[in-house]
Backbone:
C-alpha cells in the first residue's frame, strides 16, 4: 500500500533524549516506530505482533506501528531518527524528509536495533 511518511520531532519520541537517558532497547522501542491512523492499521491487516516494512527509492526499514486517530489517513508519522533516515534522501539538492512516498507492507521480520543499522550503513 502506498503511503506518505512525514518525519517529526516529538517530545515522547526524541532521539537525543533516548540516547542520553535511555538504553539500547528504549532507542528501538521509542524511535523505530510509525504512528498511523487506525483505519490504515486495519487496511494493512496489522496486528500488534506484526511489523511494517517501508521501502522506496532511498532504502527500506522495518518498524513497529502505533495507532492514533489524529494522524491523517494515508500518512505515517516517524520520529526523526536513524530508522527514519533509511527512507529519506536527497532530490534536486534538497533533503527529502516530508511527504516521502513509501510502499508499506506487513511483515514478521524483526526491527533492527541501532547497531545492526549502523553495520548495514558501514558496508
Residues:
Amino acid at each position: 500500500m502506498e503511503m506518505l511518511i512525514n518525519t517529526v520531532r516529538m517530545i515522547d519520541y526524541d532521539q537525543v533524549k533516548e540516547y542520553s537517558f535511555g538504553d539500547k532497547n528504549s532507542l528501538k522501542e521509542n524511535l523505530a516506530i510509525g504512528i498511523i491512523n487506525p483505519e490504515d492499521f486495519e487496511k494493512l491487516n496489522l496486528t500488534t505482533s506484526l511489523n511494517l516494512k517501508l521501502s522506496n527509492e532511498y532504502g527500506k526499514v522495518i518498524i513497529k506501528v502505533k495507532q492514533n486517530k489524529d494522524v491523517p489517513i494515508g500518512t505515517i508519522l516517524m520520529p526523526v531518527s536513524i530508522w527514519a533516515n533509511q527512507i529519506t534522501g536527497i532530490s534536486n539538492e534538497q533533503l527529502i524528509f516530508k511527504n516521502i512516498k513509501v510502499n508499506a507492507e506487513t511483515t514478521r521480520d524483526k526491527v533492527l536495533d541501532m547497531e545492526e543499522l549502523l553495520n548495514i550503513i558501514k558496508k
User: Anything to note?
Assistant: The domain at 2-122 is CATH 2.40.40.20 (Barwin-like endoglucanases). Strands lie at 2-8, 33-36, 51-56, 59-67, 75-79, 89-91, 94-96, 100-107. The longest strand covers residues 59-67. The chain has five helices and eight strands.
